[in-house]
């Protein structure tokens, strides 16, 4: 089973727009938080990746918004590894308010080595076997 992880996000006043619904860029912020929570759950927290000189930058993303979310709601975001390639992996995110699916999104991230310089040089690399195994078969991350 591919790695899967859930986080709960309370919708705060600052997450909403003038109409009182969640402003769409906040979904992408939540997706990023959920992606890092999944990586943390399988043993690759952002600080651990940086110690290894690795980063997982975003190279593609998208979302569909199915129902509005408002201040005071609480949503659960389930993130699952949907596809694994040599250097990239795709996460799919499902956002639920209770049992209602209110949004879906995805991210494609690349495994890369962070170099030095300004801006830092980033080189794509093959996803290490240790990471690949945890992303594809991570019972402790569910």
Helix content bin:
10-25%
Rg over CA atoms:
16 Å
Give, in order, the helices and strands. EHHEEEEEEEH
How far the N terminus sits from the C terminus, by CA atoms, comes to: 10 Å
Question: Which regions contain 5 or more consecutive residues with pLDDT less than 50?
Answer: none
Q: What is the averaged pLDDT score? A: 92
The helix count comes to: 3
What's the CATH topology label? Answer: Thiol Ester Dehydrase, Chain A
Which class in CATH terms?
Alpha Beta
As a percent range, the share of strand residues is: 35-45%
Shape: globular
Q: Structural class, from helix and strand content? A: alpha+beta
Return the CATH architecture.
Roll
Structure summary, number of beta strands = 8
Assembly state: single chain
What features would you describe in this structure?
It contains 3 helices and 8 strands, in the order βααβββββββα. With 142 residues, it is α+β, with helices and mostly antiparallel strands. A hairpin with a 7-residue loop joins β7 and β8 (122-124). It has helices at residues 25-41, 46-51, 129-136, and strands at 4-10, 54-55, 58-65, 74-84, 88-97, 100-110, 112-114, 122-124. 22% of the residues lie in helices and 39% in strands. The strands form 2 sheets. Strands 1-4-5-6-3 form a 5-stranded antiparallel β-sheet. It has a 3-stranded antiparallel β-sheet with strand order 2-7-8. The mean pLDDT is 92. It has a single domain (4-141), classed as Hotdog Thioesterase (Thiol Ester Dehydrase, Chain A, Roll), CATH 3.10.129.
């Amino acid at each position: 089973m591919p790695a899967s992880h859930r986080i709960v996000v309370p919708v705060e006043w600052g997450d909403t727009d003038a109409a009182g619904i969640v402003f769409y860029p906040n979904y992408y912020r939540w997706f990023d938080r959920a992606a890092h929570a999944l990586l943390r759950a399988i043993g690759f927290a952002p600080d651990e990746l940086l110690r290894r000189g690795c980063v997982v930058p975003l190279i593609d993303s998208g979302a569909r918004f199915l129902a509005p979310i408002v201040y005071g709601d609480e949503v659960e975001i389930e993130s699952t590894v949907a596809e694994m390639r040599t250097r990239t992996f795709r996460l799919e995110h499902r956002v639920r308010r209770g049992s209602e699916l209110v949004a879906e999104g995805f991210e494609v991230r690349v495994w890369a080595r962070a170099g030095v310089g300004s801006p830092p040089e980033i080189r794509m690399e093959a996803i290490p076997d240790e990471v690949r195994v945890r992303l594809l078969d991570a019972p402790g991350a569910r």
